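User: Here's a chain of 139 residues. Predict its fold as tokens.
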Amino acid sequence: MTKAADIMHPGAQWIPENESVLRAAQMMRDLGVGALPVSDSNERLCGIVTDRDIVVGCIAENCDPSRTPVGQLTEGTPRWIPADADVTDVLREMEEHKIRRLPVIDQNKRLVGMISEADLAHHLSDDLLGEFLEKVYAQ
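Assistant: Prediction complete.
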């Protein structure tokens, strides 16, 4: 049985909620990713910021990315999955909430990886991947 830990991109990094949007953009560039999990002061997942969030929520609003905290761009409670969850649970979570990136959390509630569409494409059959894409992108 395939688990979330088997398909995730390990070693995901997060950014503290009080860090600047500019720093988030630099980290995304350096890591080659389009999203970063955001942590609170207790190093717990409290949000996710995407490159689109930076453009729409900061740049387009004429905010200073060097002074805007990344936590200001996060909304709601982020979705996540335990590392030992079955891949069917991963797909259900992503499909039901129409999300493209899913943080993977260990037993101690610490971030251990991220699952993206690219990870799914590498590990799923064409049929399962097609079904996932249809459900996530359907209006």
